[in-house]
Amino acid sequence: MKDLSFEEKRFFIILAAAVATLIWIHEVAVLLFVSYGLALAFDPYVTRYEAKGRSRARSAIFLGTLVLLVALIVILLIVPPLIRETVDVIAEFPRYLDWVNVFIRERLGSVLNFPKDVSVDQEALRSELRRLGTTYANEIWEVLKTGMLQGYSIGLALLNILLLPFFTFYMICDLERIHSWGAELIPPRFRSKTLTVLKQTRSILGAFVKGQLMVCFALGILYSIGFSVISLPNAIGIGMSSGMLGIVPYLGSTVALIFGTLLSVVTYGTFTAVFLAWTVIAVVQLLESFVLTPKLVGETVGVHPLVVMVALMIGGNLFGLVGIVLAVPVAAVAKVLLREIK
User: Fold this and answer.
1) How far is CA 24 from each of CA 30, 35, 158, 299, 312, rounded to the nearest angstrom?
2) For 169-221, what is each residue's pLDDT tens digit?
3) Helix, strand, or coil here: 183?
């Protein structure tokens, strides 16, 4: 390779400084990257609507309004029943303790030969739970906040969420100009190869974001149907919440497992009910792995499961929840770069 010219050296120095700055102010960088990913995902639909004679800004506003309305409807379907169900679970706690007593006396007792009068001291258990809650609630909250926000303040995280639609809107409106401006900055000697890599990267990011959103919505529907079939309380709330949280790998299925098990025990108190909830979760996960993800996300991302797990650990360690969300697309982009380097 020829020696780098002064302009090329300056370009790489500026690029390195920009990357270092984005890592340093990663709160802003994440907002930019997420809004850019959403802009790539929605760009084909905006372009299609724009082809009918509307301006790009009007097309983006129309699509954005439609997405926000759908999101609002989903939230209204999920949040009120979820709050109601949480209140009901708390109200049913004494009955749950009664079930624990019966389980210990009649089932474990027959196996372990417990005395027939053995039981759980409900008042002592309530007192102990209150003590544990008072002692550890703040510590648990701090651990969760540190792990999930990784240096973010809650206020900044909420501000980023509020700003995300506006950043996405301007990204969509100026997407072509952003790409053209970026292409002009690349030194001519590296421009052709770099633009090829960037085109593949944009394709991967757009396919990932669009496909993942569709997978999450489909998971929410499937969980809701499955939990409704087995008559689990608040099936729609738990199902849609688990599906939407599926945007973070493994988080949605974990939430479904925890709440499905808890509500099955509290509501029915039988192993059969718990087994049915686990069956629903297992079936949905199989459908996600072998039908939804291959069909909706496709082979475009195509990252090995071991690489996914390593990327999740690295992303979570460096940037918390945000790092986990971005780990898979970043790994896919890295795969493209490594392939081109070869």
Assistant:
1) 11, 19, 20, 33, 20
2) 888 888 888 888 888 888 888 888 888 888 888 777 777 777 888 888 899 99
3) helix
Report how far apart the first and last C-alpha atoms of the chain are (Å, whole number): 15
Closest CA to 43 of 205, 212, 272, 274: 205
- Residue from 258, 251, 249 nearest 277 by CA: 258
Let me know if 208 is exposed, middle or buried by CB neighbors in 10 A (0-12, 13-18, 19+).
buried
Contact by Cβ (8 Å): 241, 81: no
Dump pLDDT digits (tens) for 103-150. 666 655 555 555 555 555 556 655 655 565 555 555 555 555 555 555
Instruction: State which amino acid sits at residue 285.
Output: Q
Q: How far apart are alpha carbons 103 and 77 in whole angstroms?
A: 35
User: Count of H helices and E strands in the chain?
Assistant: 13, 0
Task: Report how far residue 28's alpha carbon sits from residue 7's, in angstroms, rounded to the nearest whole number.
Answer: 28
